[in-house]
Amino acid sequence: MQSDALLHLNLNRRGQFTRRNFLQAAALGVAGSPLLSQIQLNAAEMKKQGRACILLWLAGAPSQLETWDPKPGSPNGGETRKIQTQTPGIEIAHYWPKIASVMNDVALIRSMTGKEAAHERGTYHLHTGHRMLGIEKFPHFGSVVARELGDPNSDIPNFVSIGQTLSSGFLGVQVAPFIIDRPGQLPDNVTSDASAARQRRRLALLSQQERDFAQAGAEALVQEQSKLYQKASLMMTSPRLKAFEFDGESEDMQTAYGKNQLGQGLLVARRLVEAGVPFVEVRSTGWDMHSSIFRNMERRAADVDQGLSQLLTDLKSRGLLEKTLVLCMGEFGRTPKINARPPAPGRDHWVRNFNLLMAGAGIKGGQAIGKTDENGQEITENPVQVEDLFQSMCKAMGINADMELHTPIGRPVRLVDGGAVIKGLFG
Question: CA–CA separation, 257 vs 359, rounded Å?
Answer without folding.
Answer: 17
